[in-house]
Amino acid sequence: MSFRISYAPPADDTLAKMRDSEVFRDEMARTLGLDPYGHGSSAVKSERDRREATVAGAIVLYYVSGSVLIVTVVRLVPLP
Question: So where does this one cross the membrane (predicted)?
Fold first, then answer.
């Protein structure tokens, strides 16, 4: 079972400016798209579906919507 990855406007703007955005998208699909609760992610403020993880050199803050199989990235911070 895989999750669709969706990007909120602020995260989408950051993604558009990233140098290797296609590599990042592929890595997101390969990791959090297959297991949004895994890949070294952790819950934020004890909310199971509000999570953060590091993927392909970027910190990703996202929400998991399990009933509709969507991961929504709300903030994306590329590491230098």
Answer: 55-77
Look up the CATH number of the domain holding residue 70: 3.30.2310.20
Domain residues for 20?
Answer: 4-78
Q: How many domains does the chain have?
A: 1
Among left, alpha and beta (phi > 0; psi -120 to 50; other), residue 40 is: left
Q: Is the pTM of this model over 0.70?
A: yes
Whose CA is closest to 55, among 75, 44, 66? 75
Q: What is the pLDDT of residues 29-47, one digit of tens each?
A: 999 999 999 999 999 999 9
